[in-house]
Every structure is written in structure tokens, then in C-alpha cells.
Amino acid sequence: MNRKRCYLNYKDEYIILKADYDEDFIIELKYSISWTFRKWDPNKKVWLIHISCLKELLEILKKYYSIIVNIENSYFKSLLDNIIDISKYRSNNDPYSDLFLLPNAPIELVKSARRVLMKLYHPDVGGNEEIAKRINMAYNKIINNRGDYY
What we know:
By secondary structure, this protein is of the alpha+beta class. It contains 6 helices and 5 strands, in the order ββαββαβαααα. The chain has helices spanning 23-32, 54-64, 74-83, 95-98, 107-121, 129-146, and strands at residues 4-11, 14-19, 38-41, 46-50, 65-70.
């Protein structure tokens, strides 16, 4: 099988996937990810996949593509780097590292990071309960220290 390059980016809770699509890849994508979580943009020739389907998408991409390149979103890149191997997930009593953020991250990014991570790790969607608890504790600690509330 010819291994190709694909490009991933993240915007507004959707993964933007751009690649040279072959028929087998498209069939597997449609079979694995419900139509309610994927959209095809014919103008830009990209797939938009909801962030909650990131694990499934990565499994499919591993079969067809050798290189996954994030175009511009560094937060999404760190999320990708850490979701592939959950053993890399770390906590050193720094709530920002639990959310994969820098300490000077704006509160909007903190809220967005929590939302994205909980969609991936919440026990109701097959995620890890311990990691979900750490995400919530980190979020609450940051919010309480800054004085910003839900």
C-alpha cells in the first residue's frame, strides 16, 4: 500500500483533515465515523471530523498514512502527541500541564481545553475515569485561583 501524507488541524471543535484520499480510506472513514460527526467540504476538499471522534480517526489514519502533520495549532499538536500514547499523560501538581497548556493561557483556552479533553476521556464515552477526574480538578483549580467561574 502506498503510504501518503495527511494534514490535520483543529478549529471550532472539528478536526480538519486534508490528504490525497483513496477509495478504501473514504469507505473506512464512512464506516467508522457516523455521518453526524463528519462533514465533507467540497470547496476546500477537506473532511471535518468532530473532536469526539479523534481516537477513531487516528486508528484509520495509521493504516493509510505515514505522516500526520499539524498545520498551525500547537495546542492540537500537543493533544495529538499525548492521546496516541496515554502513558505520556502526566501530572506534577501543575493544573496547566494536566490540560496541556502553558501557565499564561487565557481563560477561554482553559475552558476550551477542558471541553475537548473531557470529550475524549469522559468515562461515558469510553475514556479513563482517573484522567477525567484530573482534568476536572485541574480546571477547577485554575478557575478558582483566577476568580473566573463557569
